[in-house]
Amino acid sequence: MNLLYAIVIGTLFGSGVLLMLKGDLFRVVAGIVLVSNAANLTLMASGLTRGQAPILPLDPGEPVADPLVQAMTLTALVIGFAVTAVLLALSLGVYRSGRSVDLDDLSEQETEEALEREATDIPPDEAVL
Amino acid sequence: MSGGPTKPAVSGSAAAAIGAAAVLLVAVAVLWASGGGRIDLPWAPAWDLRLAFGVDGLAALYWYLAAGVGVLVFTYASAYVPRHLAHDERPRAEEWRVHAAMTLFLVSMVGLVTSEDLILLFVFWDLTAIASWLLIGFDRQKREARLFALMALLITTVSAVLMLIGILMLRAEYGTTQLPELFRLAEPGTTVAVAAGFIAVSALAKSAQVPLHFWLPRAMAAPTPVSAYLHSAAMVAAGVFLISRIHPLLALEPALLDALLVIGLASMALGGVLSLAADEFKRLLAFSTVSQYGYVTAMLGVGGSAGAAAACFYVLAHALAKSALFMTAGAVTEATGTKLLSESGGLARRMPLLAAGAGAAAAGIAALPLTIGFFKDELFFKAAAERGTWLAILAVLGAGLTFAYMARFWAGIFLGAPKGDVQHVERRLVWPVAFLGALVVVGGVVVAPFADLARSAADVTNGGPVDLKVAYHLDTRTENLMALGAWATGLLLFAGHAVITPALRWVERAGDAMGPERLYWGGLRLLNDLSDRAHDFEIRDLRSRVAAVIVPGGGLVALGVVLTPTAGAYAVGSFETEDIALGVTLVVCAIAAIAVTFPRGHLALALMLSGVGFALATAYALIGASDVALVAVLIETIFALLFVGVYALVPQQVLRREARRVEGRSRMVRDLVIAVASGIVTTLVVWSALSRPIPVDGMAERHIELADDAHGQDVVTVILADFRGLDTLVEITVVGVAMIIVAAAVRTRTRA
Predict the structure, then answer these.
(1) What is the CA radius of gyration of chain A?
(2) How far apart are CA A22 and CA A32, in angstroms?
(3) Contacts (Cβ under 8 Å, ≥6 apart) of B691
(4) Separation of alpha carbons B258 and B628, rounded Å
(5) What is the rounded average pLDDT of the residues A79-102?
(6) Residues 567-596 of B with CB under 8 A from A
(7) I need a surface site. Which of B17, B59, B327, B455 has the fewest CB within 10 A?
């Protein structure tokens, strides 16, 4: 099981990274969701015992699943949810201010603006050395 | 703020600093008179670190110097710093910064010299460096002061990292950083040689020895009291202190001692020559310090009873005289407004007390009879002559150089035709000099107390009793003949100064053109450029930022995986019939994750993502985590809605344009390589983590037992709501704040 868990978690993480490297902001968010899924599954997989759900009354003969990792994972899930919601809302904000959801477009715009500013403004502070 | 610039009263902060120094002086006097003392408290018991302080002879010597000279220099500073601030039109309220940093320095120095644990010593070592940075950069409105403060900090703390490495090597080998233990356990070998060598390098950098000497003349950017303290009795002395402290380790490796001897002689020669070439008071004195600590380093390199005795006595005699000379330089500059020898002269009649005090101190450095300095050279000559004729000749030449530049310094300021006006200066700028000058003379007559202190210090350095006897002898013994030779050489150099000046200036220019200081600036510029380039890359866009975190972090993790021994680290684990359902669900989950990376359309992306989430929720349900599964289902549902909802707020053509975008082939390959590599590293890390043996007792049993007491049936819920209730409260707060941010972001009207 260890190996199977590890491979599945690795696949989730790798796919997440691939998405995070894209230009499209929504794909970046999707990538972050996948990476946090990988983290949650790791937490769950690291439970010390497996067995019936830890809900009383317990069946005395059966092993019980480790409740601690479940509590941790629940916390992680909820926080991950809040983060993703904020990221999506921010993506929307980025679209509204830049008229695009693509990082390449946005950095191009930024560079152009910076060049314009440099052409008109006084030069930046002199270097330390 | 009462008191004009001519006669300012002693401020509260200055009084506090003087008081602290006086208390510490009394403390060391009492402690040393009562036979020393030890404190040993646990600090970090798990690492066997102890707050172990002890007052032995070596600690007492340096503590006496730091506190005793401290009282005088702090008194001097109480008059000097207000004048200094007034010259730069800064408010006098800034005065406390100097006094606070000097006191910090004094306390760190006391901690440093009494530490019996190398880690503790290292902490105080860096504290002294920080205090010195604050002090050298006191004139923070001046660019040079900032640059040179940074220079002193970098040279002394970067080399201190070598020291830390050396300490950790010793700890790895012998399992302790306690010095007495180490001295008992250490045996000659590569580890001790390399470790002690590293520590010595850091000590030599602190003592401004060649080739790391260049920071000291630059550190003269500090106000004069700072130079009088740090650059004579305290900071640079810390370097030779450390060499004395670990001398029993160094002595195990004769090659290290020889290296010390060579570096000491080189510093002695270079410092002497550059000091003779200098025109600025403080530059002359700074190079003189390089040269004088060169003597000490050379003597520690000679080692043995004679070397240790000469080194310890030298430190004592030099510190007394050199602080007086630095304070003289400051007082003269305040009185006449010049910092240059070529612009001064004839002050002896105008400032007789200062001239007398400075004369005694200069005579002390130049080793004239009836000063304590005579004995420092006597011991020095004796140790050198014991080692060999060649060293004796070099010693005489070095002492001759010292005589020459000291004569130049004193005669240049106090003799000759008067130049320019002389302003009145406070008595507090003069009498510390006079006091130290008197002490130098007293030491030349009643030498026993000084010799006793130096002997106790030398005993520690040598790791055994030392034969230190000093007295005047009116006969033709070697030391006396060498002293005569040194004075003759010195007089010759002094008289012929005009003739040799071009040669001296040439050495100075050659040093500027290709000395180690150029390497420092070059290295600093290179690092700055590298950092600029990394910064430019990092801030280019979001992707570079993510990469700047993930790539080095992942690299380090991968390195850890590669370097960790693999035997037994990976276990495939059992797979039983009842695991089939879970196995299939997990495989589905992995396939869905890969599938998320394919679709072009955004709706498909969101649905695939939910697919992964629901598959995971199923997996959670299969391993007895019903609560997690339930929450996962809820969250995945909201995710799908959120994604679709945000899509609805972005115009369709923007999304369509994004979907139609085609990536370059090379970028696709690059992204794929990064993704696969990070996936593999993650797999390995998780696999090895999951393969670790399961501890016998988990928290599970206890949690289950306690759940009943908490009147709950569902253990997970009880953990969240009861055992870790505060965590959950914070978590809910985070979600609440996140929802407020989302609401605000979604409602904000588009800018026109």
Answers:
(1) 23
(2) 12
(3) A2, B569, B570, B571, B573
(4) 69
(5) 89
(6) 570-575, 579, 582-583, 586-587, 589-590, 593-594, 596
(7) B455
Determine how many CB atoms are found less than 10 A away from the CB of residue B618: 19
pLDDT digits (tens, 9 = 90+) for B513-543: 778 888 899 999 999 999 998 888 877 777 7
Please answer yes or no on whether A34 and B623 come within 8 Å at the CB atom. Answer: no
* Cβ–Cβ contact B638 with A under 8 A: yes
Q: Considering CB atoms only, which of A2, A17, A75 is closest to B674? A: A17
Return the pLDDT at B5: 46
Ramachandran angles phi, psi of B344, nearest 5°? -115, 170
Contact residues on chain A for B725, CB-CB shorter than 8 A? none
Mean pLDDT in residue range B669-696:
86
* Cβ-based burial of B373 (10 A; exposed 0-12, middle 13-18, buried ≥19): buried
Q: Where are the domains of chain B?
A: 263-495, 697-752
**Subunit contact A12:B602, Cβ cutoff 8 A:** no
Between B48 and B145, residue with greater pLDDT: B145
Per-residue confidence (pLDDT) for residue B4, from 0 to 100: 42
What tokens were used for B295? 């003597």
Looking at per-residue pLDDT, the higher value among B240 and B346 belongs to B240
Summarised one tens digit per residue, pLDDT across range A42-54 is: 999 988 777 788 8
Contacts of A58 in chain B (CB under 8 A): 704
One-letter amino acid at B179 equals L
CB neighbourhood size of A73 (10 A): 27
Which domains are assigned to chain A? 2-119 (1.10.287.3510)
Is it the case that residue B751 has pLDDT exceeding 70? no
Considering Cα of B425, then B428, then B431, then B432, what sign does the dihedral take? negative
- Residue indicated by tokens 């010292």: B402
pLDDT at B106 over 70: yes
Q: Which residue has the tokens 């609560």?
A: B627
Residues whose CB falls within 8 Å of the CB of residue B505, separated by 6 or more in sequence, listed in order: B277
What pLDDT is recorded for position B698?
A: 66
Task: Report residue B552's pLDDT band, with 50, 70 and 90 as the boundaries.
Answer: confident
CA distances from B658 to A24, A109, B606 (A): 7, 16, 15
Q: How many CB pairs under 8 A join A and B?
A: 288
Among A58, A69, A74, the residue to mutate for chain B (most B Cβ within 10 A) = A74
The rounded distance, in Å, linking the Cα atoms of B1 and B9 is 9
Which pairing describes strands B38-44 and B49-54: parallel, antiparallel, or unpaired? antiparallel
- B46 vs B611, more confident: B611
Beta bridge partners, B414, equal none
**Residues 6+ positions from B22 with CB-CB distance below 8 Å:** B67, B71
Q: Determine if residue B89 is left, alpha or beta; phi over 0 gives left, psi from -120 to 50 gives alpha, anything else beta.
A: left
Exposure of B629 by Cβ count < 10 A (0-12 exposed, 13-18 middle, 19+ buried)?
buried
The answer for B240, left when phi > 0, alpha when psi is -120 to 50, beta otherwise, is: alpha
Of B462, B423, B430, nearest to B56 by C-alpha is: B462
Q: Which is higher by pLDDT, B476 or A76?
A: A76
- How buried is B691 (Cβ within 10 angstroms: 0-12 exposed, 13-18 middle, 19+ buried)? middle
The predicted pLDDT at position A127 comes to: 42
How many Å apart are CA B246 and CA B242, to the nearest integer?
Answer: 6
Q: Which of A34, A68, A70 sits opposite B596 (nearest CB)?
A: A34
Chain B's closest residue to A100, CA to CA, is B654
Burial status of residue A122 (CB atoms within 10 A of its CB: 0-12, 13-18, 19 or more): exposed
| Residue B721 DSSP class | I
Rounded CA gap, B401 and B393, in Å? Answer: 13
- Among candidate residues A41, A40, A26, A52, the one with its CA nearest the CA of residue A77: A40
